[in-house]
Amino acid sequence: MSSNGAYITSACVIRDHAVIRNGSTVFESKDTDLPGFLRSLYDRYSGQYPKFHKMDLLSKLGWAATEILLQDMPMDMYAPEETGVVLANTSSSLDTDERYYETVSEIASPALFVYTLPNIVIGEISIRHGFKGENAFFIDDHFDIEFITGYVRQLLETGAINACICGWVEQYHAGYEAALFLVEKNSRGMALPFTAGEVEKLYR
User: Residue 133 sits in which domain range?
Assistant: First the structure.
């Protein structure tokens, strides 16, 4: 299938306590739990951003994956409205929902309640980078690459956005996986054709 003038310019996959960026493993940390692993990503790839420590695990995962995705890929050539974020997962915000519910019998936690919608991860990413373009969060039982690439391609073709961070951010209890792709009309970075086949190769 044609890329229709859109390119994958950066890719980041996080699973099994390892980070794969643009097809190469760039970081591994096997000796910690998920919160500790995410903290290690923050320490390695981000500057000072105190709000990170207040986020739920799903938001931390998506936020950290975006930090790595955008390493050496400045986005300041785009107006805020030109960059979109389109994500999906299978567990929604269920992990945080359960932890919030546990607090309700005593004093409900506002800090947890904030994160009882899965699209809050998009909000955290957008606040960090100043993105104000089209965004959507889909719930599916698997990473439907054909659907996500088709949806993002339509946004690019209609001129709604000129760049998009898209992919999969899943976290439930100790299980997690993130696979994010920076897609642009401009050819830079990896400059692979934006097709479901190319996304599949990078994801696997």
Answer: 7-203
**Paired tokens of 64:** 């950290």
Residue 1 lies in a domain: no
Tell me the CA distances in angstroms from 184 to 15, 62, 158, one per residue in order.
25, 19, 14
- Whether 2 is covered by a domain: the verdict is no
| 142 located within any domain | yes
Is 90 among the domain residues? yes
Mind listing the pLDDT tens digit for each residue in 98-127?
Answer: 999 999 888 889 999 999 999 999 999 999
Neighbouring CB atoms inside 10 A of 56's CB total 22
Number of domains the chain is built from: 1
CA 104 to chain centre: 29
Residue 105 pLDDT: 81
Nearest to 73 by CA among 146, 13, 163: 163
* Res 2: pLDDT: 47
Per-residue exposure over 122-160, b if at least 16 CB sit within 10 Å of its own CB, e if not? bbbbbebbebebbbbbbeeeebebeebbebbbebbeeee
Q: What is the CATH number of the domain that holds 125?
A: 3.40.47.10
Average pLDDT over residues 48-75: 97
User: Contact, 93 vs 56, CB < 8 A?
Assistant: yes
Contact present, 22 and 11 (Cβ < 8 Å): yes
